[in-house]
Write a structure and sequence with these properties.
mainly alpha, two-stranded antiparallel sheet, globular
């Protein structure tokens, strides 16, 4: 009887692919209900020509209507092929698998990274993940698979590497040691709205620079402590069952021959690493030269149609930004091939292709997951539910009479909540900036600090919602490295894994913003929290 009771109580786990299919159906049904009740909202946008706010009506679309079902069926392949994470992860994996297949990543990790302390490695991954948002969301595609691989080679749990990289990118999104793509995306809306209040205001690209530099280090330090003290002990070690096999095998080893082979391998590995280093430096110099305007044959990666350098480098049509994943792919591929030639780990092109192809063998479930999530994200965006809910929050915020710390905290909270359903910083700020920026300026808070409120709220909850397109990379790689295939990482389980990181970093963000406002130190060169 007890055994039967235990069997009845055994948990059943849906695969995340199935869960996202259910979520897609739920969104379609929910949209039809909201549409029947005529759920809609109106947000304001600045007319650049008239310098006035103009209302824009947006309504929830009924995705169960005949036309919408037709649209979803006819656009399924387009949704998949144009889904950002798909292209980024495939390009990143091509470069990483070539570098791994030649032995470059393993040798570099074993000789250099494995010598770091656990805390040192964690800090490095989080810091790189945090500053990677200088070029949108490429950090997810590059650092999640790379961190998993490096942790595995270093005999640490690769699940921990995945969590570390994902949390670093998500909960530090928008901060870096340089002004990047987020500045270009946000400033256009901040500037337009601020001009309605003060026609002499100018939002510089460096207006948040001091704040984001300091924050990038603070978040990396706090994140390292969370990973090492809270998350790592819970995950434990990562060992396949073969490690515990009791089968013993003996063989006679000639110590002299073994020592000679070790010396020879060491020599070839060092030569391979030198060739990879030299090649990488040359490639990086070429990349840097390609983003410097005005030099002979330079500017290859810049959008010459833009008037400012920031837009040339980080604008929507920038060759650098659009092609960054491909550039990383080239860097890893060429460095890996250079190592393979120098270390003699590869003999011909067939070795490179064969070794890299083997690494793609377990990507099947991830590709299927990406297809399903691409449909889910497309359906949710098509419904306008996120836009309508965010607009309702903006309208509610506009009715509140707040100033000082209460305004900062409530605006921060509203941005964080809206980010759960509308993860695009540009779309979110387009709706919220006409409310938050005037409220801040009328309360003697600078529009530049209003932009900090936006980026802080955006980062607080960015990694804690499956609406984030790159969440699919996180959950996909968790299941790729999951040893318990009968217990897959579901959305709930994946979020539970990062819950401590989310909670503590959210508090850290709030404290940073509030303390900075109270102290009043510059957030950028010549820019302060107050006007």
């Amino acid at each position: 009887m007890k055994d039967k009771k235990k069997m009845r109580l055994k948990k059943f786990y849906f695969h995340p692919i199935t869960i996202f299919v259910f979520l897609t159906i739920f969104v379609m049904i929910f949209s039809s209900i909201l549409s029947a009740f005529q759920a809609q909202a109106t947000y304001n946008v600045v007319n650049v020509n008239t310098k006035e706010l103009e209302p824009t009506l947006i309504a929830v679309e009924n995705l169960l209507s005949f036309n919408e079902i037709q649209f979803m069926i006819s656009n399924a392949s387009k949704n998949f092929l144009s889904f950002g994470p798909l292209g980024m992860i495939l390009l990143a994996l091509i470069g990483i698998t070539i570098a791994e297949g030649t032995g470059f990543i393993e040798t570099f990790t074993r000789r250099h990274l494995s010598k770091m302390t656990d805390g040192g490695m964690t800090f490095l991954v989080i810091f790189l993940a945090t500053v990677s948002s200088i070029v949108n969301e490429v950090g997810y595609a590059i650092l999640i698979p790379l961190a998993a691989l490096i942790y595995f080679i270093s005999k640490r749990n690769p699940i921990l590497g995945i969590v570390t990289a994902f949390c670093g990118v998500s909960f530090g999104y928008g901060v870096s040691i340089f002004a990047g793509s987020m500045e270009v995306d946000l400033i256009q809306y901040t500037q337009q709205v601020a001009l309605l209040i003060d026609e002499n205001v100018h939002i510089a690209l460096s207006s948040n620079l001091i704040f984001i530099i300091v924050t990038s280090f603070v978040l990396s330090i706090v994140g390292t402590l969370i990973i090492e003290k809270i998350i790592a002990p819970k995950l434990g070690t990562y060992k396949k069952e073969e490690v515990f096999s009791k089968t013993e095998e003996y063989k006679v080893i000639n110590l002299v021959d073994e020592e000679q082979r070790e010396k020879e391998r060491d020599k070839y590995e060092k030569r391979g690493l030198r060739m990879a280093l030299i090649t990488s430096i040359i490639i990086l110099l070429i990349f840097i030269y390609s983003i410097i305007p005005g030099l002979p044959f330079s500017g290859l990666l810049l959008d010459a149609k833009e008037s400012t350098y920031a837009n040339q480098l980080f604008g929507s049509n920038s060759y650098f930004q659009e092609g960054f994943s491909y550039l990383v792919c080239l860097l890893f591929s060429i460095a890996g091939i250079a190592y393979g030639i120098g270390s003699k780990s590869i003999k011909n092109d067939k070795d490179i292709i064969e070794n890299a192809s083997k690494k793609f063998g377990n990507m099947g479930s991830v590709i299927i997951l990406i297809f399903v999530v691409a449909q889910f994200i497309s359906v949710f965006r098509r419904s306008n539910i996120g836009m309508v809910l965010t607009t309702w929050l903006a309208e509610l915020l506009g009715t509140l009479n707040l100033s000082g710390i209460p305004l900062v905290l409530v605006a921060l909270l509203f941005v964080a909540i809206s980010n759960l359903v509308l993860t695009s910083p540009t779309s979110k700020w387009m709706i919220l900036s006409p409310i938050i920026v005037p409220m801040c300026m009328q309360a003697n808070i600078s529009p530049e600090f209003a932009q900090i409120i936006m980026r802080a709220g955006d980062s607080m909850t960015k990694g804690f919602t499956p609406m984030l397109a790159s969440f699919v990379i996180y959950i996909g790689f968790l299941n790729m490295y999951n040893l318990e295939k009968n217990k897959p990482y579901t959305i709930r389980k994946s979020l539970q894994l990062i819950w401590p990181y989310f909670a503590i970093i959210a508090i850290t963000w709030i404290l940073l913003v509030v303390i900075w406002y109270l102290i009043g130190i510059p957030i950028g060169p010549g820019v302060f929290p107050t006007i």
